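Re: folding output
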Amino acid sequence: MRIKIVLSIFILAWIALLVRVYYISIKSNAYYEEIAKQNAVKVEELAPLRGVILDRKLNPLSVNRLGFSIGIKPRLSFKANRALLDQEIAFLAEALPEFSVKDLTKEYLKADSAYNHDYVEVIGFVPYDKLIPQFAKIAQHDNLRIKITSKRHYPYGSLASHVIGYVGKSNTQDVAEDITAKLVGFSGKTGIEKYYNTVLQGTKGEKKTKVTAFNQEIEQVSKTLPLSNDLVLSLDLELQQYIATLFGDDSGAVVVMNAKNGEILAAASFPEYDLNKFVTGILREEWALLANDLNHPFTNKLVNGLYPPGSIVKMGVGMAMMNSGIISPSTTFESTGTMELGGRVFRDWKKDGHGIISYARAIRESCDDYFYKASLKTGIDNIAPFLSKIGFAAKTGIDLPREFIGVVPSREWKKARFGKGWSQGETLISSIGQGYFLTTPVQVAKYTAFLATGNGVTPHFVRKINDKMIDFPVDPNIVSESEKRFLKVTREGMYDVANVPGGTALRHINVTAPFKIAAKTGTAQVVGLSQTDKKRMREEDMDYYQRSHAWLTTYGPYENPQFVVTVLVEHGGHGGSEGGPIASKVYDKLYQMGYIK
């Protein structure tokens, strides 16, 4: 009996062993074969080359400069190999004197570890022409590796800097948003470079190679090339350069936009700054100089500059008041130069007033008193909703990052913001674009396009991605047809501003091209002015940073609106005198270049 038990155990043990051998050798063959393949095939990701940015005539605005990066063999920081590391770094510093031993050592030690099997990059970029004389000498060192690479370059430095934007080294947030950012090492930080970062970055490729146990390549299994995408903008380089010359040292913003489809031919935020300084990291001293500049060169004033619109909002306010049915284009008010309400005096820019005045003339002469009295009769509840409809306090949809929306003051807005009720005095100052009212230059350009065409356009810079045209929506129903019925009289008022005696821009607009333009000036106060002074202080007598911002927004030709030109000069004082000459020359240039037929 005992023999039978022992024999049974013996047989069962052999059966179990045979089953296990069968499972490992036959059933698990596919599993272990796959593991073997993974061990034998090396997968290498191929970084795409960042796409270039071109203007509408294919002039380069953002390109890649060819160069080289240099890496040092890993794990040389260990004690046994440290002398070899120091030797290689000393050699590099001698061959390329612009790189110091201290900086190269710091870069290597920061990235080297026992788990690192790739060469440690210590020099991210050396221009092609600088490395070529030393190429053969460096290539002879087995511990050094030279790789072809590229560096973002902006051929025109500061031109259109806030629109184009710049790239910088990818951070943890960039990598979290897009894993390709870790592979390429750079991401768009501002402007078009950031807004279209995923497009410009392209799609990574992949190379599969058979390798030995010692990581030596045997043969290439497959290769998928990376893909790049180029952008063609609506900007015209020649016009952009011309406007930068016109603006000179002033601070502010300019937008030149197609009134019919929203294409932006030129746009700038002044002062501008050199984009090339940010690609690999700006010096601390240069950063401090820019950061402390009171004219705020880092602020993209096109979409992040919030300003009271001043009198340029009067057309929108006027249409809102007339749409209420409470007043009409023929309704008149007596402008005496001042209006008293609740113990406060609200002044007109014209000391003695404008006399008996109706809507179109109030636009022409920018009569504050008319809007005080008309808005008091109409009420903020009939004004604010229409202003929101035509684009204020809303994103325009422009293809730039972090667009601000501004403020259209209203009863509801003030209650939510401050927990307080609305006062009639706030209706008065809102009607002339002051008080809580805030807008951006791009919003004003979109609003002006509505006044010119009756449509809502989407301001934009990109025309093509590679060879594919990109369409941006035009909304003919931004307001109802009934709400558009006062556009005609509004346009007549804007025509008078630039072409009829009494117009606030008449003396300052001098378009020599064979057409007329429509315009509206605006003076946006930066500081409150005493209402007790009998005579308002002149802008030129005030400290520079207390002077009002100067607005001028225009469209032309008047009979066939094709372009909008909006100009903001910070602390310029008067919109007509500051913006008029700039806008006039821009229209002449548009005609000269063939944009206006």
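--- second protein (sequence, then structure) ---
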Amino acid sequence: MKVGDAIAEIMKREGIEILTGYPVNHLIEHAAAVDIRPVMVRQERIGLHMADAISRVTSGKKLGAFCMQHGPGAENAYGGIAQCFGESIPVLVMPMGYPRRIAHVPPNYNSTIQMRGVTKSAEAIMSAAEVPNIMRRAFARLRNGRGGPVLVEIPTDMFNEELPGELDYTPVVATRSGADPVDIRRAAEMLANARRPVIYAGTGVHWAQAWPQLRELAELLAIPVTSSLGGKSSFPEDHALALGSSGLAMPKPVRHFLDNADVIFGIGCSFTETNFGVKMPARKPGGVKFIHATLDPDHIDKDIRCDIGLVGDAALILDALLEELRGRVKEKRDHAPVQQEIEAIRAPWLAQWAHKRDSNDAPLNPYRVLRDLWRTVDVDNTIITHDAGSPRDQLSPFWISRTPLSYLGWGKTTQLGYGLGLAMGAKLAAPDKLCINVWGDAAIGFTGMDFETAVRERIPILSILLNNFSMAIELKIMALSTEKYRTTDISGDYAAMARAFGGYGERVTEVAQIIPAIQRGIEQTRNGVPALLEFITSKETEVSRL
């Protein structure tokens, strides 16, 4: 068996069904031979974002995989790999490499060396006999511990080398670990005795599929719940104890409850300090205490000094906490006081934003478009994601997610154009869902050509474009350059672009057409056609930043 055939067979045995990529990489042909579907993109970054979403939507039960050309293909892919690394997403990355005799000769790009800083591991195949061992190590790292991309580089002169003997490969084991029982008891006591506890749920709740345990804990102790953008949808946001998700923009109850908490329990989160996540209240004597539950021990005391650290799988930690608490708390605590306090903060906050969300103005207010989108789609059968900047901050505080993994969010630095690939990957992983990406006219300039990929590869997503012909959030910091040189102006007829690619494209300028246009777009996706709805919006810059 040749190396290329062996790698493809191992991928198939490990359950990989789709290989996103861009040629030339000979693995594409080998994958097709064993019925792994190759999906070709227009730029490397989109392929990685699609693989990212495949892993996310299945909580890692099915892994995304991506391959690309050596040299410029690998160089172009760096940003997408870095995104997976920052968001802890397990993706198998398989770059082709230069022939072994020149792989380490500058200026040839050596992925194994250059990408070690943005991968869990990076290993090159230098011997045919070692293929099973190298692939076993790669999949073991993908399926165990904190998520992250794993890279296996295949030099171009390796594909046709013969393995000695038959391929001997068994899929790797996936393990879970729990926290120290002593610390579990301490955490249970702290939560049971807390006067104003808050739960902060991160992405780890999704990877562990710990949604029922999270809800049970909140309901047992009447604890209000917020989440990072990555953890959004891990707790139903129409629940009486839900505060909403927290990023740069957030619902007002989030800030109120965090700032008045005596205990904050972070579960499945890193507490990473970032401008795109909620800031935790400052530590001071006699003030808030932190319980930090995370899969990665390197996160403990990294950005937030914690009082109790729990290292392990979010589901196992919550199971252990619940078991300990059942001996301390005999019946569910009354939700009413917390619920009343949440509503007392939320109602005036929503009233403050009503004039934007209910606006009948033209150009359209983006908040009105997103309000009508939520009211039109089947929210519980939808997976939605967004792009960086205004789409993220206008969507996340007001979009009420009710079912797990119905929202793909992220809370650290991100390349513009990320949402398109996420929506396409989500649709591949969950074909029965309506998969939506919300982006702006800046983001579509980065990855808009890959709407053609959605058409060509028959991936019927709904793409919501908010077009204000401007980099609006930069207006304040680029006032002089805009006045003199129009540096924040951008333009395009993107609905026409979608039609030119063979998809459905519609430009919407009137409030009365928002919902009908969304309905037409959804119908197109049901017919197997990707749809792009271009809403002409105002230069809205206000966000719920508290």
